[in-house]
Amino acid sequence: MKKYGLIGKNIDYSFSKKYFTKKFKSENIEASYENFDIKNITEFLQIIKQEKKLVGLNVTTPYKVEILPYLDQIDKQAEIIGAVNTIKINNAKLIGYNTDAFGFVKSIFTRIENHHEKALVLGSGGASKAVVKGLKSMSIDAKIVSREPQKGAINYSDLSEELMNQYFLIINCTPVGTYPYESNCPDIPYKFLTHKHFLYDLVYNPPMTKFLALGNQQGAKIINGSKMLTYQAERAWQIWNE
């Protein structure tokens, strides 16, 4: 029986295991899916060594970037993005891909309006890198907002009323607000949000995060990350079976 799994940290809540287990059952696929919850990326190779039936892996926070040096080959798009969320294991060779950008674009493309020309991307991790790539493919300028801003990024304290009135698309790529910390939310000035704003939260558990709820109160359009996860998961499945 083929085996698939998820590499991450504190992933009991994971979408992937539930999704693929249900898929395998409903489509009569002889396969299993397991969460590999590791405290450090150095544990990754031990899993590969022990789990001989593994043919595919998903990768989630916080290892989408840290996983790169452990791979034998990286797909061109994943290399451009600088993050991997899908690994195909072929003849003991570990090949990295990124399906996050695909899932993000497919989930948001029909919801974009003409005034969504600029986006604030909250967070600078692996998911953020994929979202920025997706935005660029739609000709949307992205500005990263981070607690530890690097070159080209800004700090949360820089989010003035003037800036908020220039960027009408805001995407949360951080885990802030994820269960069981639903009372938390990214530190942006929600009072400046309007009906022209569109808030997208990659967090899907809970479905209505505080980030989205506060945006909704201001009349902003909102969406969570559940559709993105479904699209990226199906793309990963295609890659594993190519």
From TrEMBL:
One of the record's GO cellular component terms: cytosol
Gene Ontology biological-process annotations: aromatic amino acid family biosynthetic process; chorismate biosynthetic process; shikimate metabolic process
Residue ranges crossing the lipid bilayer per the database entry: none
Gene3D superfamilies: Leucine Dehydrogenase, chain A, domain 1, NAD(P)-binding Rossmann-like Domain
InterPro entries: Aminoacid_DH-like_N_sf, NAD(P)-bd_dom_sf, Shikimate_DH-bd_N, Shikimate_DH_fam
Pfam families, per the entry: Shikimate_dh_N (PF08501)
One Gene Ontology molecular-function label: shikimate 3-dehydrogenase (NADP+) activity
Pathway note: Metabolic intermediate biosynthesis; chorismate biosynthesis; chorismate from D-erythrose 4-phosphate and phosphoenolpyruvate: step 4/7
Keywords: Amino-acid biosynthesis, Aromatic amino acid biosynthesis, Oxidoreductase
SUPFAM superfamilies: Aminoacid dehydrogenase-like, N-terminal domain, NAD(P)-binding Rossmann-fold domains
All copies of domain Shikimate dehydrogenase substrate binding N-terminal, residue ranges: 6-87
Name of the featured protein: Shikimate dehydrogenase
Organism: Psychroflexus maritimus
